[in-house]
Structures are given as structure tokens and as C-alpha cells.
Amino acid sequence: MGKRQSLEEPCQAKEQGSQLQWKNKQGSSEGDGGTTSLMRKGFENLHEVKRLCHWGPMIALSVIAICSTVAVLDSIIWYWPLDTTGGSVNFIMLINWTVLILYNYFNAMFVGPGYIPLGWKPENSQDSVYLQFCRVCQGYKSPRSHHCRKCNRCVMKMDHHCPWINNCCGHLNHAYFTSFLLLAPLGCVHAAFIFTMTMYTQLYDRISFGWSSVKIDMSALKRTHSPIMPFSVPAFAATLFALGLALGTTIAVGMLFCIQMKVIVRNKTSIEAWIEEKARDRIQYYQTGEEFIFPYDLGSRWENFKQVFTWSGVPEGDGVEWPVHEKCHQHTLTIEQLKQKADKRVRSIQYRVVEDYNGACCPISKGLRTFLRTPCTEEPRISLTRGEVLFATRGTKWWMYGDKVLSEEQAKAGDRMRGWFPRKCVEKCLYDTANNSTSEEKKEN
Ligand SMILES: [Zn+2]
Ligand SMILES: [Zn+2]
After folding, report:
1. What ligand has the least distance to the C-alpha of 271?
2. Where are the compositionally biased (Polar residues) regions (predicted)?
3. Which CATH superfamily includes the segment(s) 350-444?
4. Ligand closest to the CA atom of residue 138
5. Against a cut of 0.85, is the pTM above it?
6. Along the chain (445 residues), what's the average pLDDT of each consecutive run of 10 residues?
7. Those residues with Cβ within 8 angstroms of residue 318's Cβ, 6 or more apart along the chain or in another chain
8. Distances, alpha carbon 21 to alpha carbons 122, 142, 314, in Å
9. Sequence spans of domains, the chain
10. 137 an active-site residue?
């Protein structure tokens, strides 16, 4: 009965707006007495605050704090004083960016992606044959959910675990997360404009260009109006530093925004894109003539967009059941996942190491693109030695994630070498050669 309730719970809460976010965080804690649930609430809040104690949120919040503080100070002291209309509007805009950015950032972090209740079972028990079982959560994985090892829970429509919010990006916080990714670069562009203009106007009167030299006289006063404080060297240094941060953030976060928009308008998470790639691979290999249709793409970008962005801030759906393509059903993707899992045992998609790799996060010797596109995760990198064999489970264009094939002794001891490595360092073993080589080795033995 308890499990039934937990499935229905999000559906009921849907109409109640923000309550949904709270209830989902509670997982399956329903059915407790008043006091215990209150105590639990307290503890969960404490647990949520702990999310801040991590390098990701600390760096992100520091960047936000530095950029907005310096932008506000630069504006009101030197560049655009508050006693002008433009200055007031500029000030309100700057505060507005900061508030909006923090609002979306904290919502992405604290609302969280939505977790599948522990011990979850499909409403119709016969459907469980189409689903994978999560041993950690002791329940079935509902469609589109995946287990996150960092959150230690099965996450609704999981896209990835983001260290910057120290939480997963998934069903409930997808809109907040993406809004943050849009607002942060916009705010940074505004701030960068203020920084540049402050430095320009403050230094303009002090710079004198000679034939072969540039002189900056920091003691010279600005002619037009005298600010409350002179633009000193520390102020100049702080502004220049903040400009660097703002430009860096604009580029890096702007790129992440483009990636997330692609995910949203296709209604296909990065994990699902990988499953689809493997589905194509599997069908092509077996020549089954199946046609794999990705079930969650509703056919129009706008429809897909509206699934995530709603006026209430709560995305469409309960995070368990999803609208699907007319030729598909609720379990099209989970059945494909099960087929791939079974297929994994039958044929081995192995990769052989062709180039050594030392396990560095941003290896310089593996090319610029590998260096720049290093996966933004805390997951480990594994060092590679030529000749080793790996079993890749997912990847990006430049990086792959997988298990090293270990010796029998190591495998028996329960060792596992799992992590990221540059795609450049490995080569796909053809299925035949992979099988042949193992059979050859066996013959030799
Ligand atoms: Zn799980
Ligand atoms: Zn996570």
C-alpha cells in the first residue's frame, strides 16, 4: 500500500504547484507520525544545506558574488552614478540579474531533479518485466530514470550530475537549471560592459600616448565629474579580475546553455542520446530490420520546450509516466535498455588502447579538442597503457566512459577500474577480431 501511495503522490501534488517539489524530495517518507515527519523535514533541510559545502557551489557563488559586487560598485562610484536616470536603471538591472541568477541557481540545487521513491514498483505489476531493478534503491527504475551514484538515488529523467549545483540535473529542476545557464551569461555580458566602460572612462584622462610609449598617470583627476573615491590601483585590479571572470563565465556557461537547449528541444537527455546511439549500433549489427523511434520526442521543438518550461515553474508530468510518440509506448525505451543489457553479455563492444594516457583531467598531449571538451564531472579518469582492453558504456565525441577488462584474479577480488578516458587513445575492436583473439588465446593456452 505504501508503495502505491508513493507513486500517486506526485500526481496529486501536481495541482498543488510547489508542493510537488517538496514532496518529491521527501521520497517515500509518507505515513509517518506528525512529529517524526517534522523532524525529518528538519534533517532533510540540514542535508540540503550541506550541498553548499562542496567546491562546485563555493566557486559558482564566489564568481556570482565577485561579479555582481564589483559591477555595482564600479557603476555607482565611477561609471554611472545613481543620481542619473540611466544610472538608476542600470543599478536596478544589475540587482535584477543577481536576484534572478541566484533564484534559479538555488532552485536548481534545492528543488533537485526529483527522485524515484525508494522501493518503487510499477502500478501494474506485470510491467516490471520491462524495467530494470536498482539494487541500491531496492526498487524498479521507472522510464527515463537512472541511478546517480553521487546522489545515491534513482533520478527522474536524469541528464547528468552537475558538480556546480552539487546535484543532478533532471525532471524537476531542468527549467531552473537551464534558466540559470541563460541568465548567468546575460548578467555577465552586462557586467563585462560595466567593467570595460569603467576602466575606459577612468583611464582615458590618465593615459597619454607617446610615439613609442603609453603612460598612465593614476594621480590625474577625471575632468567631467569627481567621484566619491578616486579610481585606485586596487579598484582597477579588481575590475580587471572581475572582467576576466565575467568573460570566462559567458563563454563556458553559454556553451552549457546551448547543450541543454538541444536536450530540451529534442526532449532527449544526454544519457538517452547515448542509448539511442547504442540502439542504432545494435540494430545495424544484428540486421534485425527494426526501426528504433526515440519515444519522447513529441515531434515539435515547441511541444518539447513546453514540457520543461511552464508558467508555474513545475514541469509537465509526474516524472514517472511520459507522453510518447504515437508508434511507441511507455516501455519502448526501457525494453531497448534491457535488450542492450542482454546484448552486452552476448557481444562485447570492446575498445583496445592504442595510445598511453596518464589519467590527467585535461591532457595537453591529446589534442586541443580533447583538452577543451573534458567531461565536466567529478567522475574519475583512468590511466591507460597500450594494449589494455576496455569496455565502454557511454561517451561524448571526445571522451569515453567505461570499465577496464581486468585479470581474473582482480575480477575475483571485486576490483573495478572505471572512469573517463580520451576517445583518441582507444580503437573499437571489431566484434569478430575481439572474439577471434580471445578464442585464439584460448587455443594457445
Ligand atoms: Zn537507484
Ligand atoms: Zn546526482
Report:
1. 2
2. 15-29
3. SH3 Domains (2.30.30.40)
4. 1
5. no
6. 37 37 40 48 66 93 96 91 90 96 95 94 91 92 93 94 94 96 97 93 72 62 61 90 96 96 95 91 85 92 94 90 91 92 71 92 87 84 91 84 81 73 88 44 39
7. 10, 11, 14
8. 21, 18, 8
9. 2-266, 350-444
10. no
